[in-house]
Amino acid sequence: MLRRKPILILMCLVFAVWIGWYLYRDLSLSDKKQALMEIPEVVVESLNLNRQIGNKQWIVSVDRAEHKDNLVTGDSLDIFVAEQPAGRTLSAWARSGDFHRKSLDMHLSEVHGVLILPKRTIDWRASQARYLESADLWHMGPDVYLMDGETSIQAKSAQFQIGGALYFKGGVAVRWVEKEE
Predict the structure, then answer these.
(1) DSSP summary character for residue 55
(2) Helix, strand or coil for residue 173?
(3) How many whole angstroms from its chain centre is CA 14?
(4) Which residue of 1, 5, 82, 122 has the smallest Cβ count within 10 Å?
(5) Cα→Cα distances 21→14, 30, 147, 178, Å
(6) Is the confidence at residue 108, as pLDDT, over 70?
(7) 179, 181, 129: which is closest to 159 by C-alpha?
(8) Which residues contact residue 168 at a Cβ distance below 8 angstroms, ignoring those fewer than 6 apart?
C-alpha cells in the first residue's frame, strides 16, 4: 500500500507537468508567431467580404472561392465600392477573378461595371480588368467599352480612377448623340 502512494503521486506530478507544458505553449504564442500561421487551402461557397479602407467601403461577394498560396480565386464576383463623402460608387460584375489575400489587387475576367459620379453615370465593359490598390487605379483591356447615354467610347485599353481620371491607350473610337431640345 505504501509503495503505490509514491507511484501514484509521481504519475500525477508527471501528468500535471505535461498539461502545464501544453498550456504554456498554447497560451504564450506571440503575435509574430500567429501572423506567420498559414491559412489552409480551402474552397468556399458564397463568400462575402466587407472592408473599410480609408474613405472607401468595399463589399465583395463571390459565389465560389478557392484559397491557395495566398491567392483567392473566384467564380461570379460582385464588387461594390462606395467612396464617402464624395458620393461616388462603383459596381462591377465579373465571370471570374482573383485577388491577393494581403491586398485588394484584383484581376477580373469578362467584366461589366457601372461608375456613378455625382453628375454622371458611366456604364463600362471590358474583357479583362485589373485593380491596383497601391495606385487606386483600374486597368481595363483589351476591348473596352464606356457609355454614358450620350457618348460611347471604344478603346483597346483604358485606365481610370473612381475619382474621375480616365486615360486611353492604343486607339480610341468616340461616338456621341446630340440631345434634341
Answers:
(1) T
(2) strand
(3) 49
(4) 1
(5) 11, 16, 66, 79
(6) yes
(7) 129
(8) 153, 155, 157, 158
Cα pseudo-dihedral 175, 161, 60, 157, rounded to 10: 50
Please provide the DSSP assignment of 95-163 as one string. Answer: EEEEEETTS--EEEEEEEEEEEETTEEEEEEEEEEEEETTTTEEEE-SSEEEE-SSEEEEEEEEEE-TT
39 pLDDT higher than 70: no
Distances (CA, A) of 86 to 56, 81, 82, 83, 125: 10, 12, 9, 6, 24
User: Cell numbers of 22, please?
Assistant: 501544453
Taking alpha carbons only, the member of 113, 94, 91, 98 closest to residue 158 is 113
Place of cell 465583395: 60
Q: pLDDT tens digit string along 76-95?
A: 889 888 887 778 888 999 99
Block residue for cell numbers 473599410? 52
* CA–CA gap between residue 74 and residue 88 (Å, rounded): 26
59 contacts 79 by C-beta, under 8 angstroms: yes
- Indicate whether 62 pLDDT > 60: yes
